[in-house]
Write a structure and sequence with these properties.
Length: 104
C-alpha cells in the first residue's frame, strides 16, 4: 500500500533551517529569564519578606499552608527546575549552525 501524500506545506527535507540573529536573541532572552526566575523562586521563600503579602493574610487554613516549610520547599524546587531549564537552553544554543563561509 502506498502512503498518503503529504500536503504541500509539510514536505520533509534534509536541509538545515537558516537561523537568524533574532532566533539567537530570543533563545538568549529565554535563558536569562528562566535563570532569574529560578534564582528568585529558589531564594525568596526563605526570605523574611515572604510573609509580607496578600496570601499570608488569608484564612487560617490557607496561611498555615503558606507558612509551611514543605510549601516553601516546593516553591524552591520549582526555582531549581527553572535553573535546570536555563542550563538546558544554554546547551541548546549550540544548535545554531555557523553561517556559511562564502556568505557575508
Amino acid at each position: 500500500m502506498k502512503p498518503a501524500p503529504e500536503p504541500d506545506g509539510l514536505q520533509h527535507t534534509n536541509e538545515r533551517l537558516a537561523y537568524r540573529w533574532y532566533h539567537k536573541l530570543a533563545s538568549l532572552l529565554v535563558v536569562i529569564f528562566c535563570f532569574e526566575l529560578g534564582v528568585f523562586l529558589l531564594v525568596f521563600p526563605w526570605a523574611s519578606d515572604w510573609d509580607l503579602n496578600y496570601f499570608s493574610s488569608l484564612p487560617i487554613w490557607a496561611s498555615a499552608i503558606w507558612a509551611s516549610p514543605y510549601f516553601r520547599g516546593a516553591i524552591s524546587g520549582l526555582g531549581a527546575l527553572n535553573i535546570y531549564v536555563s542550563f538546558l537552553e544554554v546547551f541548546r544554543l549550540r544548535r545554531f549552525p555557523a553561517p556559511p563561509s562564502g556568505l557575508s
